[in-house]
Amino acid sequence: MASATTPEHLAQLMSRVAAGERAALRQLYEATSAKLFAVCLRILSDREEAEDVLQEVYVTVWRRADRFDGTRASVMTWVSTIARNRSIDRLRARGPMAYAEPVEAAEIADGAVGAEALLVAAGEQERLHRCLSQLDARTETVIRTAFFEGVTYEALARRMGAPLGTVKSWVRRGLAKLKGCLAT
Amino acid sequence: MSEAADLTEAEAFAAEHALGILSSDERRQAEARMAAEPAFAAQVEAWRERLTPMTDSLAEVSPPHALWQRIERSLGANDNRGANDNGAMARGLRFWRGASVGSLTLAAASIAAAVMLANRPPVVIHPPAGGQLLDASLVSQTGAPVPLFVAAYDPIRKALIVTSLVTPGNDPAHVHELWVIPADGKPRPLGIIAAGKTQEMPLPEKLLPALAAGSALAVSVEPPGGSPKVNAPTGPITAVGKLAKI
């Protein structure tokens, strides 16, 4: 599915979507919806809400396709960002209690590289996973948990029983290291 | 891994926003800052490119078949010029007419700039082939009618040139979203207008018919990123104007 669709093909689809071609939106949906649904589900942990958000995501893509700038972002990043942002906004709207739910340790650790990622061809993805795995285990877990679950510093600090400032410095230092590693 | 240099405060904030770790308030601040500072927006975008490949480790989950139909139906509702939503914008305007413009204020210098802009001869020399040059002055909906935005439609460039006369930085938690309301009364979003700036907003082909003399332009106050609703403003309408032939 998405893995078989090249970035160039997706970029062509986006320009047709921007021109108001509904069939192109359908093709974009077919190429990307399973990945985006996984993103929404992971953040929201609620099928019904994830479906609502996914619907909003493609309506937003349709409405704002003309704002997509292929020179500044890839299609996959652009649509994933819309999916993540909508999901995180929905999660935040549940209120602070939503972050306090205890999560099984296994689930937190579940961001580890899966078999699928190991098969990913050499390139950006592989580099990111390599760089993430070079962080210390705690920092890697915190960054992956924040990315996949859209949780706040406050919630992470509560989960990990660590002061907020400490968690913040782990993340910021981790991100700085990640940037350095990705730049090499 | 060797020790990396610390990120600047701005880049750390950009990275945190891309990561999705910020609270609602901080997310709004980050979005407002993206709208106001292109350099910051570029940093957020660069971090999104860096981090998004993480989603590759998520196993794909096919959404239910019915979902595409739901999406297609909501597109249809946007495109059809049905009668059911007629007057929705007008009702919205009436509802918000009493609302305060809030912290959005005017700079006298900006008004002078707008007057100069309005008096400048049209840039396009050849007679437009695909349509008519139009302009509109969008005036405040409370108190005395003060122009808050000026807009000109160039049918050759297929773009609106919009100038915001609102002082930037007064309300970082909100953005201004521009709408066109053609004869069918249904608002269509045109984009976010940065405070105090002049910008060219390219228009998708499907929206061109809406840009006609007599169509209304309206600006609403929205959360960063624009109205969460697909085809309706959610915040108060601050300014309204009608497109007229130049």
Could you walk me through the main structural features you see in this protein, from its secondary elements to its overall organization?
The complex is a heterodimer of chains A (184) and B (246). Chain A has 184 residues and is mostly helical. Chain A folds into two domains: 1-94, Rna Polymerase Sigma Factor, Chain: A (Orthogonal Bundle); 102-184, Orthogonal Bundle (Arc Repressor Mutant, subunit A), CATH 1.10.10.10. Chain A is built from eleven helices and no strands. In chain A, helix 2 (22-44) packs antiparallel against helix 3, helix 2 (22-44) packs across helix 4 (75-93) and helix 10 crosses helix 11. The longest helix of chain A is centred in the first third of the chain and has 23 residues, at 22-44. Chain A is globular and about 50 Å long. The two termini of chain A are 31 Å apart. The model of chain A is unreliable at 100-122 (pLDDT under 50). Chain B is of the alpha+beta class. Chain B folds into two domains: 9-57, no CATH class; 85-245, no CATH class. In chain B, 30% of the residues lie in helices and 22% in strands. Chain B is built from six helices and nine strands. Chain B has helices spanning 9-19, 24-36, 38-51, 66-79, 88-96, 108-119, and strands at residues 134-140, 147-154, 159-164, 175-181, 188-193, 198-202, 216-222, 237-242, 244-245. In chain B, strands 1, 2, 3, 4, 5, 6, 7, 8 and 9 form a nine-stranded antiparallel beta sheet that branches. In chain B, strand 1 and strand 2 form a beta hairpin. The longest helix of chain B is centred in the N-terminal third of the chain and has 14 residues, at 38-51. The radius of gyration of chain B is 20 Å and the shape is globular. The model of chain B is unreliable at 77-113 and 119-129 (pLDDT under 50). Classes of the chains: A mainly alpha (184), B alpha+beta (246). The interface between A and B is large, with 80 and 56 residues.
